């Protein structure tokens, strides 16, 4: 078991996240391309009504306002019973901004961040129940690019295929203050095809947020994600850095279940048992974590270097084949030819799931990032945030971590 700090992991996650950093085994722990349901290539503005009646609608941002964040959404104060029927937003250069109205009608969200230091003109048209229309206009200017921004990362890549337990994982550095999480969460859009409800859950410290459904994703699901942080103001004087967008696919159902009592891994594909493997888990001094984890990273060959571990008994440098990361603390599934003689009978690892070289090669060739592994019966419970732990909680516990109310069964698309 080696030492791997989450601080290092957070830094590695910033930007469109590249491969995750490796440490040793163990240690403590084209449906909706625009996320939220809109299509960036399609105009979100219906035809203008022919007649406009009544006084102007008050529009937000207010007419003549300056220094507006580039995350600004367009809204209007509506008469009772009226609904927004059209929104246009045009930059000073005459280019029209695409966007989509939220499902609750509360605001119109631009498909991409507004530009810094730019003047925009907005027009909102509302239609009453009797067919009459009202219109409001506003010209406002966005702020200059701020100097103090957070870092962020999205663990999802375009056109990649993931396992059924792949959560949408967003990282923030520094963490998002509690008072800001609801506003940030409103700017984190997820759409699934076919539709499946879901919810966000914040890890203590606000350095990570996970999105998942009540159950694993349906095989073949398309996940369309927009983490629209660019320019969002925070209470600590910082601003969101960029928007991150990805559309990915969920593959077949593949699941691994490890029982410490039998020291066996049972492998399921599409609900059917395809193989049972003997394993060796963590010895009592360095137990494996019990809980639902997901494969976060795969390395066909690597080196575990735990010479910085405070316990001299846990310091080693070892070449490892077919390594699949499960936790930030350094737990992996990997080939362990040195323990093959006790696999299925005795736990001797530093917290990892040891399998034979042949079985490790077989597993490595079949797993995807996001495939779940459930370990039961060990001396240690999986710690929240030690890996992508979105599935280590029941659904009722998970939704308690949302910064916004979650309807029974889960939240749907905001559009």
From TrEMBL:
InterPro entries according to UniProt = Big_10, LD-transpeptidase, LD_TPept_cat_dom, Transpep_catalytic_dom
Q: Where is this region: Disordered?
A: 33-68
UniProt protein name: L,D-transpeptidase family protein
Pathway field of the UniProt record reads: Cell wall biogenesis; peptidoglycan biosynthesis
Q: Which organism is it from?
A: Micromonospora thermarum
Q: Which residues form the signal peptide?
A: 1-23
Q: Which residues form a coiled coil?
A: none
**Which controlled-vocabulary keywords does the entry list?**
Acyltransferase, Cell shape, Cell wall biogenesis/degradation, Peptidoglycan synthesis, Signal, Transferase
What lineage is this protein's organism placed in? Answer: Bacteria, Bacillati, Actinomycetota, Actinomycetes, Micromonosporales
Pfam families per the UniProt record, alphabetical: Big_10 (PF17964), YkuD (PF03734)
Q: Active-site residues?
A: 334, 352
Q: Where is the composition biased (Low complexity)?
A: 40-51
Q: Where is the L,D-TPase catalytic domain?
A: 254-376
């Amino acid at each position: 078991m080696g030492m791997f700090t989450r601080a290092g992991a957070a830094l590695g996650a910033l930007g469109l996240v590249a491969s995750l950093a490796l440490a040793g085994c163990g240690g403590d722990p084209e449906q909706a391309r625009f996320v939220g349901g809109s299509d960036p290539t399609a105009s979100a503005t219906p035809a203008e009504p022919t007649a406009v009646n009544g006084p102007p609608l008050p529009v937000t941002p207010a007419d003549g306002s300056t220094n507006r964040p580039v995350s600004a959404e367009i809204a209007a104060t509506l008469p009772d019973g009226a609904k927004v029927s059209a929104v246009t937003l045009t930059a000073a250069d005459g280019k029209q901004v695409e966007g989509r109205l939220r499902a609750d009608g509360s605001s119109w969200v631009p498909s991409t961040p507004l530009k810094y230091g730019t003047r925009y003109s907005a027009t909102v048209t509302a239609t009453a129940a009797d067919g009459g229309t009202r219109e409001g206009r506003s010209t406002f200017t966005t702020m200059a690019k701020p100097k103090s921004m957070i870092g962020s990362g999205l663990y999802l890549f375009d056109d990649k295929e993931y396992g059924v337990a792949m959560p949408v994982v967003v990282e923030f550095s520094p963490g998002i203050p509690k008072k800001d999480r609801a506003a940030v969460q409103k700017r984190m859009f997820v759409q699934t095809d076919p539709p499946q409800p879901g919810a966000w859950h914040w890890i203590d410290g606000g350095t990570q947020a996970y999105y998942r459904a009540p159950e694993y994703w349906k095989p073949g699901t398309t996940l369309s994600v927009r983490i629209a942080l660019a320019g969002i103001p925070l209470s600590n004087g910082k601003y969101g850095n960029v928007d991150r967008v990805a559309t990915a696919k969920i593959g077949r159902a593949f699941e691994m279940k490890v029982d410490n009592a039998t020291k066996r891994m049972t492998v399921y594909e599409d609900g059917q048992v395809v193989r049972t493997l003997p394993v060796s888990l963590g010895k009592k001094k360095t137990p494996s974590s019990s809980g639902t984890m997901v494969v976060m990273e795969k390395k066909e060959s690597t080196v575990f270097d735990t010479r910085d571990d405070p316990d001299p008994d846990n310091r080693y440098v070892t070449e490892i084949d077919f390594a699949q990361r499960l936790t930030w603390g350094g737990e992996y599934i990997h080939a362990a030819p040195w323990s093959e003689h006790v696999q299925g009978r005795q736990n001797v690892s530093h917290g990892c799931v040891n399998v034979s070289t042949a079985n490790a090669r077989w597993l490595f060739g079949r797993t995807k990032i996001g495939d779940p592994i459930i370990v039961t019966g060990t001396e240690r419970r999986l710690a929240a945030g030690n890996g992508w732990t979105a599935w280590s909680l029941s659904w009722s516990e998970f939704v308690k971590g949302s910064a916004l109310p979650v309807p029974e069964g889960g939240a749907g698309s905001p559009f």
